[in-house]
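Q: I have 252 residues here and want to know how they pack in 3D. Can you give me a structure?
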Amino acid sequence: MSAPLETEKTLRIVYTAIMTALVTVVTMAFQIYIPATQGYFNLGESIVYLTALLFGPAIAAFAGGVGSMMADIFTGYLHYAPWTLVNKGIEGYLAGWFYLQLRKLSPSGWKKFNLAIIGVTVVGILYLGITYFTGLAEIGGSPPFNWFFTATFPVWIWILVAVVFLIIAVYLGFFEDVMTGAAILALLIAGFWMVFGYFVYEQFVLGYGALAEVPFNIMQVLSGIVIAIPLSKLVKMRLGELFAEEDFFGEV
């Protein structure tokens, strides 16, 4: 039975506020500074994608745009904040919208594409991780987290991440939810919009060498997918009743 209209509106406001705050906090809590573009790698994409998979395009657009913009403001990246509001907002909306559309396709058809989509993601993790994310890195969290350390990332870390994701994604896609491939594809499409959007902004508005950040932004997308896909399944398992109504998060 559907919830009363006023109750549903209240719930949407609550979910939007919670997910917006989570995007802000997670974006601020883990950052790797990128000197070439005065930007930073972060894990906020994972919460934007989680929001899209759980609550659909409208809430994901707000949480992605406003939450990410607030993180830019709070951590001193004011030169990115205006475009982040737009770019991450569009990314969140696209992730939710494409997921809704792709879910409408025949589940039997997705069985043919799941492994290919998962394979592309795994190859991307391996290539970018080994090429750009091995060696010494300075990692930290902006205030109020105030933590910082220098770490060395060996090649085997990325092989482990890729293998673990492969196992989880194959299990989910072939035994739990055949539409897992649809979720991954939707997030990839939205993510590559984000990468393109920041490239244009950095290259033509800020005047930076934007190509330097492209691999980091792509890895940000892949990291978000690695976290969001299993996390969304876990949340739905734990809070099944909340997501029992198929179209709750699809209404915009």
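Q: Anything worth noting?
A: The two ends are 19 Å apart (CA to CA). The beta strands are 31-34, 39-42, 135-141, 147-153.
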